[in-house]
Design a protein that fits this description.
2 helices; about 90 residues; alpha+beta; single chain; elongated; about 20% helix; about 35% strand
Length: about 90
């Protein structure tokens, strides 16, 4: 990931992260670890790839790390923007 955030990719990563976090810990715990990716368009209209991952932050059954990475295709993965949050176990 780059040190300087692309505002367009950062906006999309935050939006997708907000969507990804609409699931509760209980719902996420049934599918963690899991990830997917899809192609879409950024707010500025650029074609991008969005990658979502739900990972155990530590021991299985504990907190869940939700990560979203947005990048301009496989050759530009290192130029992408990542947003992440913890979903705390209740």
């Amino acid at each position: 990931m780059t040190d300087t955030l692309d505002p367009d990719l950062a906006a999309m990563a935050e939006d997708e992260l907000t969507r990804a976090l609409t699931l509760s810990w209980r719902d996420l715990s049934t599918l963690t670890p899991w990830g997917d990716s899809f192609d879409g368009f950024s707010p500025a209209g650029r074609q991008v790839t969005v990658e979502r991952n739900y990972l155990w932050a530590g021991d299985p059954g504990g907190d869940i790390l939700c990560e979203v990475t947005v990048f301009g295709g496989p050759s530009r993965y290192d130029e992408g923007v990542r947003a992440s949050r913890l979903v705390r176990k209740p």
